[in-house]
Design brief:
mainly alpha, 2 strands, Arc Repressor Mutant, subunit A, single chain
């Protein structure tokens, strides 16, 4: 592998030349240096492991950026999936909303402001893309109960997005 080149550059040269670019992409996506470091490392590990052939340096740079973006997306998705919504008290939603408030189109911060009984079904429906029958099976509830919780939970989300904090 020591003789392997990427668009005419050694692995070390690629790392030196594109480290700032990849780091910048990761930091801008994740807005957290510690998380960005993980994705940065994974990007260059993939380059080393996969050893793709590149037409030129532009192709190499584009590949590194695309892999870095994908690593960041994967990191975000993985960490969201492992968030235990039950572990956050309803009263402590202010802390959680401060963490996620950067992107108000992301429903995660709003979910943290709903009561746990709504939060669970809303999360499974909107974030994990489960259907009513699947949620009912997962939670051991009747489908009509899940539909009611979804309806009331949506109303709570409308209040949150509309700025009405009457919960």
């Amino acid at each position: 592998m020591a003789d392997r080149t990427f668009a005419g550059l050694s692995y070390d040269a690629v790392l030196q030349k594109y480290a700032d670019t990849v780091a910048g992409v990761c930091v801008m996506r994740l807005q957290n240096w510690a998380d960005a470091e993980d994705c940065f490392q994974n990007t260059f590990i993939k380059l080393f492991q996969k050893s793709p052939d590149f037409q030129d340096e532009n192709h190499l740079k584009a590949w590194l950026i695309r892999v870095a973006i994908n690593e960041c997306h994967g990191y975000i998705a993985k960490n969201r999936r492992f968030l235990s919504l039950d572990s956050v008290d309803h009263e402590s939603y202010e802390h959680a909303s401060a963490v996620w408030h950067d992107n108000e189109r992301d429903v995660s911060w709003a979910l943290m402001r709903t009561a746990p009984k709504y939060r669970e079904v809303l999360y499974l429906h909107y974030c994990e893309q489960y259907k009513v029958d699947e949620i009912a099976e997962i939670l051991g509830k009747k489908p009509n109960t899940v539909k009611t919780l979804l309806k009331r939970g949506r109303e709570k989300l409308r209040q949150i997005y509309g700025g009405d904090d009457d919960e």
